[in-house]
Amino acid sequence: MMGRVQKRRARKPGRDIPLEPEPYPFPWIFRPSNYSDLYLMSCVPESQVQHDIISLLKTYRIDAVPIDAGGRRSRGVMMGAAKAAGISIGKLANFKTGRAIPSGFADLEATLAPSGRSLYIEVKAPAWCDQGKRFLRTAGAASPEQLDFLHEKHKRGAVVLVAWSANDVVEFLGPLLVENRKALG
Length: 185
Prior knowledge:
The chain is an alpha+beta fold.
């Protein structure tokens, strides 16, 4: 299944207004108006967003597991070891982990108690702006493969979202966070 194409949105200062129904029934579009200027000026990288989300989920006793679907961490470790050993790393630069993890697999996977529903979170870096509110970098966006993966999991009953902050997770999961903590004591 090919990725869905985002429809153009009318813009008002500081907010996006949908002209038609969203093509996905879960958060997937970065909306700058949902974030404080301070957060956007903090230039938060994706790795920090993921760390913050994992910390939040641990607070609610959710067993989040980070998934290295692209093998970036594995490649980095291998390339560092090869370079330290004096081995040419040119041929390793395009090494992939194989097909064990499906294309588009989410960054975080967990199970919610007491329902046993799966949770998949695709983590992205928020937009970065300067003190004059000029954007220095656009927000990360989920690829068509990532959106297709999340949509297929959603159709099977999983809770899914794209998150640019830990607060996105709190806002979307809300009572499910508290329910999970209560269920696990």
